[in-house]
Amino acid sequence: MRRSPGVRVGASIAIATGLYGISFGALGVASGLDVLQTIALSLLMFTGGSQFAFIGVVAGGGSGSAAAAAATLLGVRNSVYGMQLNAMFRPKGWRRFAGAHVTIDESTATAVGQDSSVEQRRGFWAAGLGVFVLWNVFTAVGAFAGNALGDPKQWGLDGAAVAAFLGLLWPRLRGREPVAIAVVCGLATVLAVPFVPAGVPILVAALVAAVLGWVSHSRSQARAAAGAGVEGLEPDLDPYSSHAHGRHDALGEHRRRASEPGSTGTGEAPRAGEGEGA
Amino acid sequence: MSLWIWILVACAAAYALKLLGYLVPRRWMDNTRMLRIAGTITIGLLASLTAVNAFGSGQSLVLDARLGALVAAAIALLLRAPFLVVVIVGAAAAALLRLAGWG
User: Fold this and answer.
1) What are the transmembrane regions (chain B) (predicted)?
2) Cβ contact (<8 Å) for A206 and B72?
3) Which residues pair with B60 in a beta bridge?
4) Which of A82, A137, B49, B56 fits a disulfide with A165 by CB distance 3.0 to 4.6 angstroms?
């Protein structure tokens, strides 16, 4: 096992990702959730982007329903990952249901980055279970520590939330089109804030993004028909890879090999690491 | 109490979405337009959450110490700092600006 590249990559991702569960825990209680609610999100929802979205809406004074809607929209990409992994492993019985729960950015990225089906499976479970354990442990640590801090603003925890969302967004801003979408959606949000209840501006931005995606798809199809290349704008697999040190190199190396023939050939969507330094 | 209900609803939805990928026939979701839209929605939501958390305060817009956090985090990201460092830099910027009496 120690020599298994899948397990090695999975374990290093688990450590890098699990650690920032501490920031989720602290921000969760700062947003107004209690310790148990914060822990429940990591245990049961277990998909970082959606969890941050949920507490982000609550922190802004949004309703529980708006928070749930934003979290659910951000979770849509996990369906794409599930489809990808199902094509790779064809899990049966309980493995399918357990595997679904740990189907996240990190476990999918680790799996698709391996070059044999055995290593893909090992990598998926090592990253999925490893992140699950550490993410939950550090969420609890952060939640209890955050609770003990007193006034969260005094410690700049609202600033930490801003930084966390920017940090999640940043690696996705590759190329002009994603940047344009981010700017338009940010502006749409700010313009909507005074006119609709808290939490709703985020859903307005999601709608704007969906329309932009629909329109830009038509345009890229036209460009492809005209012989120009199609710009990649698929949901990517590892939003943190270019920032979490160590992981970038390990993953990039395995990903390059994964694209060679002999991997399970799971089609083109979603392509991890595309457009990164690799 | 009602927040608990929405937490559980959102958790159930998150699991259902993950499981959905394993259960539906591949061709149903192998639609390039849908994949692209899933990508743009992710970017749009994260940009929106950044904006709301930086400038929103209920139904009004304010400029306070969080603006400093946004700028500091962007600089940290430009310098390729890891995620956890970015978060800490954001917190420190907001806390220091408040200590200095702004926002």
Assistant:
1) 6-25, 37-55, 67-97
2) no
3) B57
4) B49
- Only one residue has tokens 């609709």, namely A196
pLDDT in tens, A122-177: 999 999 999 999 999 999 999 999 888 777 788 888 898 899 889 889 988 988 99
8 A C-beta contact, residue A53 and residue A68:
no
Q: Which residues in chain B are closer than 8 Å to A139, comparing Cβ atoms?
A: none
Closest among A110, A69, A66 to A88, alpha carbons compared: A110
pTM for this entry: 0.72
Instruction: Pick the residue of A43, A134, A165 with the most B CBs within 10 A to test the interface with B by mutation.
Output: A165
- Chain B's closest residue to A173, CA to CA, is B43
User: Checking DSSP bridges between strand B60-61 and strand B56-57, what pairing results, if any?
Assistant: antiparallel
Contact call for B22 and A83, based on CB within 8 A: yes
Query: Which residues from chain A sit within 8 angstroms of residue B59, using beta carbons?
Result: 193-194, 196-198
Nearest partner of A129 among A246, A7, A41, judged by Cα:
A7
Q: Contact, A257 vs B96, CB < 8 A? A: no
Q: What is the ipTM of this complex?
A: 0.89
Distance spanning both ends of chain A, measured CA to CA: 27
Give whole-number Cα distances, A49 to A167, A219, B23, B51, in Å: 11, 29, 23, 16
Helix axis angle, A21-30 to A117-148, nearest 10°: 40
Q: Quick check: B69 and A47 CB within 8 A?
A: no
Q: pLDDT tens track of chain B, all 103 residues?
A: 699 999 999 999 999 999 998 998 766 656 788 778 878 888 898 899 899 999 998 789 999 999 999 999 999 999 999 888 998 999 999 999 999 988 7
> How far is the C-alpha of A268 from the C-alpha of A271, rounded, in Å?
6
**How many Cβ pairs within 8 Å bridge chains A and B?**
350
Q: Which residues contact A62 (CB under 8 A, 6 or more apart)?
A: A197, A198, A199, A200, A202
Residues of B in contact with A193 (CB under 8 A): 52, 55-56, 59-61
CA separation for the pair B5, A37 (Å, rounded): 11
